[in-house]
Write a structure and sequence with these properties.
Length: 606
């Protein structure tokens, strides 16, 4: 009945609890809950087209992207899994009166975003989903589309026992489902399964978490099950990868998208590729002769860089001690002065400075290193300039925020994960290079069973040998699909919206008692302390000791309660602080306020 917020052309009318027509005027919020907590509605369900968000911010004319990969910050899925306001529904859909009718009626209801979750409602929600799903599978005869073999003397067992056996886990030893492909049977099974997914699962995902286009792309990829090593095996995906990587290079600012690139199994691996390429560029003989043919190499990265720089340096035989940590300033950005100090130190020690790995959007503080200044230093000392924009790269899609990465076009290599800020489904990660031919030179091994040189088409289309993987998933389709469907503009609006939400949250807690910002955020990471009322008089050492314990205690409580997940961590001398990372443009201002209010609730007695 109600309009789903996912239709780009559907703007819900702005909501006013006072003017909303009452659909069930005898309805009262469940005991213990106020009407405000239930979205301000005094009737339920809300009338068509109305959304239970007083701020009315979800009147999106773009498709929001949902995701929680970087994020550490999510509202637990179960709350929203079956739609509607869990607390409001708790009464009508307690396990006792869980009926098909109730469930069907509730499905697709807008949710009440200010509602605190509790164990009971969470259980109701996930039970409901399970019951729903299992019932459908059993009763709609999904499994009847499978061909069963029943031994003659067990005909009755098969009649009675088999239908539930797939999903209920009560396997009936006398029933055997034929498992070899019989085309008609499997087609019927697939169709019923897709119908079921469309009825049940699509609803779940459309209300949360996964970009719908990204998800469809992912499903399609899994259905096609390609491996992108050669053109003959994956012609469309091979070309699609080149196309997308070229577009990404254009966005970085490389003329006409020149250079090359690859999809990687994650940003960590992409950073590892960058190290190996920097090394190969300088010492091509290394590929054959190995590490002993060169001297001690040094990599420079900031104290706040992602741990993968060290991890992959260890993996590549460079050694973690040879990753020199450059100091950061009070905004978490790499200090140029200290970078030069570190480079000179390496030279004094007779080592070979190899590369700088700058970070655009550090994982914890969300800081952007000064790329232009770092490029100048790299030029001066002849160093490879890598930018780890795994997290912050998405900001390049936004006219408003791309200045944060200015200077990225001067890099030799860039790590950019569409599965982070742009929330393509996991995983979708790229390494982009200003140079051409280096990937094949550094990694190619010309396996004759795959990369024959006497094929009937140009083997330049066979991109597989540029990778260290052999068989490889097509991570491109889901991102291609999202990008095509929403346009660069849609991705830009997503980015702008999550930045806006981060700013909203920052302003919301800025003057709120007990909250203390660690720093003014540059990205969508908001880092802050919370001091509960009884501890606000403390100062100095005593306060630090208390803060150190607040993080883990509140985290434990939120995990056990199941209301949300916000991470915490210490950083150098700073005791544990919370880190809210916003990535989901489908959230409302009310959701974001919930994060702060829930921390207050969870810490009220500390
Ligand atoms: C997340 C992250 C990575 C690692 O990416 P994965 O895809 O998780 O391997 C690397 N660098 C930065 C700055 C990140 O935030």
């Amino acid at each position: 009945m109600e309009k789903q917020p996912l239709n780009p052309n559907d703007k819900p009318p702005s909501y006013s609890a006072a003017t909303a027509p009452k659909t069930n005027s005898s309805w009262q919020p469940p005991s213990g809950y106020s009407s405000t907590q239930c979205g301000g509605f005094t009737s339920w369900p809300p009338p068509p087209g109305y959304y239970p968000s007083a701020s009315g911010t979800n009147n999106c004319n773009y498709v929001p992207s949902y995701g929680s990969t970087q994020s550490t910050t999510i509202i637990m899925p179960e709350i929203i899994l079956v739609g509607g306001c869990p607390a409001c529904r708790a009464e009508r859909t307690s396990p006792a009166n869980l009926s098909e009718a109730n469930v069907a009626e509730d499905r697709g209801k807008p949710r009440c975003t200010t509602m605190p979750a509790n164990e009971e409602t969470l259980n109701v929600s996930s039970d409901q989903t399970r019951v729903n799903f299992v019932e459908k599978v059993c009763n709609n005869g999904l499994q009847n589309n499978l061909d069963r073999v029943c031994p003659d003397n067990h005909e009755e067992d098969c009649q009675n026992g088999c239908p539930g056996s797939i999903v209920k886990g009560k396997s009936n030893e006398h029933c055997h489902y034929k498992s070899l492909p019989v085309r008609e049977i499997h087609e019927k099974f697939m169709r019923s399964f897709v119908d079921l997914l469309l009825e049940e699962a699509l609803f779940m995902v459309s209300s949360l978490f996964v970009d719908p286009y990204g998800l469809l792309g992912q499903w399609l990829t899994d259905a096609l099950n390609p491996s992108v090593y050669t053109y003959e095996v994956s012609p469309v995906f091979s070309l699609m990868e080149e196309e997308i990587l070229c577009e990404m290079r254009k966005i970085i600012g490389w003329m006409d998208g020149s250079g090359e690139g690859i999809f990687c199994p994650g940003g960590s691996i992409a950073n590892g590729y960058a190290i190996n390429l920097a090394r190969h560029y300088r010492f091509p003989q290394l590929k054959e002769l190995g590490l002993s043919s060169i001297g001690r190499l040094i990599i420079f990265t900031s104290q706040d860089a992602h741990y993968s720089v060290k991890k992959l340096s260890a993996f590549l035989g460079i050694g973690t001690n040879n990753v020199f940590e450059v100091k950061t300033d009070n905004r978490g950005k790499m200090s140029i002065t200290d970078l030069e100090v570190q480079i000179k130190k390496a030279l004094d020690e007779g080592a070979i400075p190899l590369m700088v790995s700058a970070t655009a959007g550090t994982t914890v503080l969300g800081a952007f290193d000064p790329l232009k200044d770092i490029a100048v230093i790299c030029k001066k000392y002849n160093l490879w300039f890598h930018v780890d924009a795994a997290w912050g790269g998405g900001a390049l899609m936004s006219k408003k925020y791309r200045h944060l990465l200015s200077g990225v076009e001067l890099a030799d290599s860039v790590t950019w994960n569409p599965h982070k800020l742009l929330v393509a489904p996991q995983q979708c990660s790229t390494l982009l290079l200003r140079h051409e031919g280096l990937l094949q030179a550094a990694h190619g091994s010309k396996a004759t069973y795959l990369f024959q040189s006497d094929k009937f088409y140009s083997t330049s289309f066979d991109s597989g040998d540029k990778h260290i993987q052999c068989g490889r998933r097509a991570d491109v389709l889901k991102f291609w699909f999202m990008w095509k469907a929403k346009g660069t503009q849609g991705l830009e609006r997503h980015v702008d919206r999550v930045f806006e939400l981060a700013q909203y949250f920052t302003d919301y807690i800025r003057h709120r008692e007990g909250f203390n910002l660690i720093l003014e955020p540059e990205c969508t990471n908001v880092c802050f302390w919370y001091i509960p009322p009884s501890k606000r008089h403390l100062q100095g050492e005593n306060l630090l000791k208390v803060l150190q314990k607040i993080g883990p205690t509140v985290k434990e409580r939120m995990v056990k309660k199941g209301s949300m997940l916000i991470t915490y961590q210490p950083l150098r001398e700073l005791p544990n602080f919370f880190r809210l990372v916003l990535q989901n443009s489908g959230l409302t201002e009310a959701d974001v306020r919930f994060f702060a209010e829930e921390i207050e609730r969870l810490a009220s007695d500390l």
